[in-house]
Design goal:
Chain A: Residues 1-25 form the SUZ-C domain. Chain A: InterPro entries: SMN_gemin7, SUZ-C. The complex is a heterodimer of chains A (128) and B (216). By secondary structure, chain A is of the alpha+beta class. Chain A is built from 2 helices and 5 strands. Chain A folds into 2 domains: 26-69, no CATH class; 71-126, SH3 type barrels. The radius of gyration of chain B is 26 Å and the shape is elongated. In chain B, the strands form 2 sheets. Chain B has a 5-stranded antiparallel beta sheet, with no helix packed on it. Chain B has a 4-stranded antiparallel beta sheet with strand order 6-7-8-9, covered by helices on one side. The longest helix of chain B is centred in the middle third of the chain and has 17 residues, at 101-117. With 216 residues, chain B is of the alpha+beta class. Classes of the chains: A alpha+beta (128), B alpha+beta (216). The interface between A and B is large, with 35 and 36 residues.
Chain lengths: 128, 216
């Protein structure tokens, strides 16, 4: 199944700047989440904040190192509707909204480069 | 559709770290593994499973479960000291293993030989290699260990080191045997393409070493 396919452009999600999209609708939240969720504890203890910041930075650093080690490895994406595809991991964006992959093996052929929406992914796995 | 996992916050997430957890995600996917980290931005869990082969040390398979798909997270057991240690060091930069001094010396000599065979002036300066007076190569003498302020030299030398053929283990012991093949090799390949010759035949290095003495 190594036939390359031409680039497919799928419809984009709602544009956050145009009229008519309720920012609270599930579709908007799923596709246009633009800000990193901040801590809910602004009214909670002020002394918890440094601890939370520290925890947040430790967790994030670990996660970023993990992402660094996935680059250029073959990963298997498990997506909704029982979709399992294999690709070579490229990069992720800062909010973990999209993954850039190469050589995505789909049932219709191999996509040379693709952007996978994180909202569609349930999990992905690779060998370290 | 989201369970409370994404809303817990870093202070709660960090309590799950280094524990073996069972995660249900999506419709009916279940994942088990040691929780390495949770991404605070997307609440994604990174699970590691070790497969200890007899050959070549342990491999690990890693699953990342996206935060928005998580249904339930259950703690199965805590990690002991050894597993925690293994987990924390699994994604550190790969060069954490120091080489023994003799291996380092051998590598240095190998890289130096390769550079000289490619007509690149190189001098040994203690533990480092000085190339063309403008570039320094430090241990362990890989392409990433080159330091220079000259972009062009840096690029050339990095590419050269990257294309160095892997040396067979008893390289020095094979030298006397290969000397008999010298006439065949130099006759077969054109003398004005040194780099081509090196890349084409791995057993040819002795042929080039004899020529090296003439230009030193």
């Amino acid at each position: 199944m190594a036939t390359p396919v031409s680039v497919l452009r799928l419809p984009k999600g709602p544009d956050p700047n145009s009229r008519g999209f309720d920012p609270k609708s599930p579709r908007f939240i799923a596709l246009c989440r633009t800000s990193i969720p901040t801590s809910a504890g602004s009214e909670a203890d002020v002394e918890q904040l440094p601890k939370e910041q520290h925890a947040r930075s430790v967790l994030r650093e670990s996660f970023l190192r993990c992402l660094l080690s996935v680059t250029n490895k073959k990963v298997q994406f498990h997506m909704y509707e029982r979709v399992k595809v294999e690709a070579t991991f490229g990069a992720s964006d800062i909010d973990v909204m999209n993954f850039q992959v190469s050589d995505l093996h789909t049932p219709i052929g191999v996509q040379k480069e693709a952007l996978i929406r994180c909202q569609d992914v349930i999990s992905f796995s690779f060998d370290a | 559709m989201q369970c409370g996992w994404s809303l817990l916050g870093p202070l709660q997430w960090i309590r799950y770290i280094n524990k073996q957890v069972k995660v249900t995600a999506g419709k009916d996917e279940e994942h088990r593994g040691w929780l390495l980290t949770v991404d605070p931005v997307s609440a994604s869990l990174v699970l590691v499973n070790f497969h200890d082969d007899a050959v070549g040390g342990g491999r690990a398979s890693v699953q990342v479960v996206m935060g928005h798909a998580v249904q339930e997270v259950q703690v199965l057991q805590d990690a002991d000291q050894e597993t925690t240690q293994r987990l924390q060091s699994s994604f550190l930069p790969p060069r954490a293993r120091p080489l023994a001094p003799e291996q380092l010396g051998q590598r240095r000599a190998g890289v130096r030989r390769w550079l000289e065979e490619n007509r690149v002036p190189v001098q040994e300066d203690g533990e480092e290699l000085l190339v063309a007076g403008a570039l320094t190569i430090m241990a362990p003498y890989g392409p990433e260990d080159c330091c220079s302020s000259n972009q062009i030299i840096l690029d050339r030398v990095q590419r050269l080191i990257q294309s160095q053929p892997a040396a067979p283990p008893n390289h020095s012991a094979e030298l006397p045997n290969h000397s008999a093949e010298l006439p065949n090799h130099s006759a077969a390949l054109p003398a004005n393409q040194p780099i081509q010759r090196l890349i084409q035949s791995q057993t040819a290095p002795p042929a080039d070493q004899s020529e090296r003495s003439s230009c030193d």
